[in-house]
Specification:
EcsC family protein; single chain; EcsC
Length: 276
């Protein structure tokens, strides 16, 4: 896969979002959601989204300090040394490896992450109240981690404030409805193109808004379907609810990791071309 092929692949992938046309249901939903939040007290609305953003920031910081993440970091560096012996730091991956090699390593992390999501969704599908209650925060945590690992693979230190915000914005964009992702992609590219300091993020640090809430609403419907089908048991196992949970969680992680991969691939190519 040459650089030109990766570039073409990203452009082709992006076109599906640029050409996406919202259907009538999505337009009605957007109008209803905007009207609902327009009628809400501005102070309450701001506080709600501020607390949600704070939770994402703390989750990102928590992940950076876990041994699980440290092990993944070392695994990425070890794989990098297979291609270039002088890889010592995360930044070396960016300068020493080709986009093909970085993509290969990132795919190793992505495959593992999707498997974890599939397994976690299957467990949630058993219908236990504890597992259902933990499902959404666990899914967000796992998908934030997946974005972090892709970013690390492409040579970006996730413990730098700038890269932390970029990775969270990638996660946010990846979990938006399909009709909004092209605009989110443009905002991300504008952000990295105007970067002035590699360590300080001076752009808009707001992550969540009413448009983003469609994702947790979908997760709520998933939980409802799991509850509806958990008593449909075959040989003592609720296969339908397990399938719903596993498939739903896998698809979300696939959506997030596909977006993250394309973003960091494209960013890497632009940096190599001297445009960033």
């Amino acid at each position: 896969m040459s650089q030109q092929r990766v570039h073409t692949d990203v452009k082709k992938w992006l076109k599906q979002y640029q050409n996406y046309q919202a259907n009538d249901f999505e337009r009605v939903y957007d109008d209803w959601m905007h009207q609902t939040f327009d009628n809400m007290d501005p102070g309450i609305k701001e506080k709600f989204f501020s607390k949600l953003d704070t939770w994402f920031f703390h989750t990102h910081a928590f992940l950076q300090g876990t041994s699980f993440q440290m092990d993944a970091r070392e695994r990425i560096l070890t794989l990098g040394r297979v291609f270039a012996e002088n890889v010592d730091t995360i930044e070396d991956l960016q300068s020493e490896l080709t986009v093909d090699q970085l993509t290969y390593i990132a795919n190793q992390q992505i495959t593992r992450g999707r498997l974890y999501s599939f397994a976690q969704g299957g467990l949630t599908g058993t219908g236990g109240w504890l597992l259902l209650g933990l499902d959404y925060p666990l899914m967000m945590l796992m998908n934030i981690r997946a974005v972090q690992l892709v970013g690390l693979t492409f040579g970006h230190e996730m413990n730098h404030p700038y890269e932390m915000m970029i990775s969270l914005k990638v996660f946010h964009a990846a979990t938006l409805p399909k009709r909004l992702q092209a605009a989110a992609w443009r905002d991300l590219m504008d952000e990295v193109e105007r970067k002035e300091n590699p360590f300080i993020f001076d752009g808009d640090d707001q992550l969540t808004n009413e448009a983003w809430l469609e994702q947790p609403i979908k997760q709520g419907f998933k939980s409802l379907f799991i509850l509806m089908f958990r008593k449909k048991i075959f040989q003592g196992v609720p296969f339908i609810s397990i399938a719903i949970g596993a498939y739903s969680n896998y698809q979300l992680t696939k959506q997030v990791t596909d977006f993250a991969m394309k973003f960091y691939q494209y960013r890497h190519l632009k940096m190599k071309e001297g445009e960033l």
